[in-house]
Design a protein that fits this description.
single chain, alpha+beta, Flavocytochrome C3, Chain A, domain 1, Methane Monooxygenase Hydroxylase, Chain G, domain 1, five-stranded parallel beta sheet, five-stranded mixed beta sheet, 14 helices, 24 strands, 19% strand, binds flavin-adenine dinucleotide
Length: 528
């Protein structure tokens, strides 16, 4: 518990960073659940990389920029697509087994990709295979230690200069909170899907990294952009299990309750249109037909193919009573991915000294207003490695004297209201289709609940999560209300068009109101 570097999160980004850091000092990787419980573990469809014979890095770049709807940080996209092929080769050298056909890597297609460039593993267990590989590699370093069931509740800062010098950790085995000092801290806490009532994300995705960084004074960027996946399983009593886009890539069709295909009426690319288009089309079709869901028809693909290509999806749906080879699957959209997060440069540096972020919790601007499918696992490995390398320079600097007495930025208090209430507000008013009135309502209710907060309550992981969900929901609502346009995954009925004055990144911190920064100010180095 006395590392040089503290890595918060054991998904692909945290593990990839830890492998870099291990070359320099002692690393502690903490995870709030088991070490394998993460979005990385559940990622199905694959990892995008321009390695296929007919593909080019330039085309991957173009597709990413197109999906990002005018808001990508071009330098971040270039780093992602250019460093992607080497990052994949490295994973293969470390033992990752991607699916092959006749001995060569097998690539599939997903929405808004102009080429077949999605690598997959064990059919639909790509994230699990990459996480397994990185875990094994990280565990081979004697100076990387792991701690599971250890949730960080806050970052520690010195009274003097605001630099982060460690984190407060709730250790479930003892029920105690301990302070872990470190020379530098990486937030790799993943996404925030659990801020919404319906989500494909695992329980750990409660936006803790964004909330902790916010409390420590870091800048948060583009947080209003949340991607809603069009097709999550909709069966009563079942979780909103993801039905990968690759299913549509292989020929799956969307039908309304009358059994009619409808996507052709909404976009020329039909089922392969960008995710936000498909998600909104489904919501519109559900309203038009007064139905709680639509149907994903996979029956034309055949049982043998579905069973071998998508074994995990096949089995999971069967457990919830749906044989995907024999009957159309009831689906509806669910919160899936956060494009925004803790603002970083291309090396994971945040606006707070010694605090870094990588993976889904970070916002490099690589995804702009809408993430291209299968770019996030790649983001985790590329930017995780970059952040790890950049953090190493802090090895030469002494641990701040105040590290052992560093305190969370504010006393623990919980907002009034339940976590269910926050999640419902976020889903209803900050979801797929937004409007000014609903967003204002969400902001005022969440602010009122904050004013009614109770101080001095005992810190538990549940209370800590509730506080974070509330904080992140409020940030999303505020930033979505301020962005008076529709772009990418952010759609407002009262401002249905894109507006050039909003082709900028939102940046907010607890010390300043929302500002809008153009792309060049997000480039490497600008953060300082
Ligand atoms: C169902 C599903 C399918 C997906 N499919 C794909 C896909 O096919 N391709 C693709 O590119 N992307 C996919 N994604 C997105 C992708 O999986 C994630 O964006 C990516 O894995 C995030 O990696 P990460 O390392 O940033 O975070 P994660 O993998 O989510 O890891 C987060 C880690 O942080 C820990 N943590 C969180 N809070 C705390 C705390 N307070 N204290 C301590 N530890 C904490 C967690 O325990 C966990 O170890 C999918 C996501 C989901 C949910």
């Amino acid at each position: 518990m006395n590392p040089d570097f503290l890595v918060i999160g054991a998904g692909v980004a945290g593990l990839r960073a830890a492998i870099e850091l291990a070359q320099t000092g002692a690393v502690l990787v903490v995870a709030k659940h088991s070490l394998r419980e993460s979005s990385s573990e559940y990622a199905q469809g694959g990892i995008a990389v321009a390695l296929n014979d007919d593909d080019e890095v330039r085309l991957h770049e173009e597709d990413t920029l197109y999906a990002g709807d005018g808001l990508c940080n071009g330098a971040a996209v270039r780093a992602l697509v250019e460093e992607g092929p080497a990052a994949i080769q490295e994973l293969i050298e470390w033992g990752a087994e991607f699916d092959r056909q006749d001995g060569t890597l097998a690539f599939t297609r997903e929405a808004a990709h102009s080429r077949n460039r999605i690598l997959h593993a064990r059919g639909d267990s790509t994230g699990s295979e990459i996480a397994r590989t990185l875990h094994r590699k990280a565990a081979s370093f004697p100076n990387i230690s792991f701690r599971s069931y250890a949730a960080t509740t806050d970052l520690l800062a010195g009274s003097a200069g605001g630099a982060v010098c460690g984190a407060a950790l709730y250790d479930a085995s003892t029920g105690q909170t301990v302070h872990v000092p470190a020379r530098a801290v990486l937030l790799a806490t993943g996404g925030l899907g659990r801020v919404f009532l319906n989500t494909t994300n695992p329980d750990v995705a409660t936006g803790d990294g964004v909330a902790m960084a916010w409390r420590a004074g870091a800048q948060i960027s583009d947080i209003e952009f949340v991607q809603f996946h069009p097709t999550a399983l909709y069966v009563e009593g079942a979780p909103r299990f993801l039905l990968s886009e690759a299913l549509r890539g292989e020929g799956g069709l969307l039908r309304n309750r009358a059994g009619e295909r409808f996507m052709e009426r909404y976009h020329s690319m039909a089922e392969m249109a960008p995710r936000d288009v498909v998600a909104r089309a489904i919501v519109t079709e559900m309203a038009r037909t007064a139905s709680s869901h639509v149907l994903l028809d996979l029956t034309p693909l055949g049982e043998d193919f579905l069973h071998s290509r998508f074994p995990r999806i096949f089995q999971t749906c069967l457990e919830y009573g749906v044989n995907i080879a024999r009957q159309p699957v009831p689906v509806r959209p669910a919160a899936h991915y956060a494009m925004g997060g803790v603002r970083t440069d291309l090396n994971g540096r945040t606006s707070v000294e010694r605090l870094f972020a990588a993976g889904e919790v970070a916002c490099t601007g690589v995804h702009g207003a809408n993430r291209l499918a299968s770019n996030s696992l790649l983001e985790g490995v590329v930017f995780g490695a970059r952040a790890g390398r950049a953090m190493r320079r802090w090895m030469a600097a002494p641990v701040p004297e105040y590290a052992h007495t560093g305190e969370p930025p504010e006393a623990f208090h919980t907002p009034a209201g339940s976590v269910h209430e926050f999640r419902e507000l976020a889903w209803t008013h900050c979801g797929i289709v937004r409007c000014g009135e609903g967003l204002s309502h969400a902001v005022s209710v969440l602010e009122a609940l904050e004013k009614d907060s109770t101080g001095g309550s005992e810190l538990t992981p549940e209370r800590s999560e509730a506080r974070n969900v509330h904080q992140v929901a409020l940030l999303i609502a505020r930033c979505a209300l301020a962005r008076e346009e529709s772009r990418g995954a952010h759609f407002r009925t009262d401002f249905p068009a894109k507006r050039p004055e909003f082709q900028k990144h939102s940046v907010i911190s607890r010390h300043s109101e929302i500002q809008y920064l153009p792309e060049e100010m997000l480039l490497a180095g600008a953060i300082e």
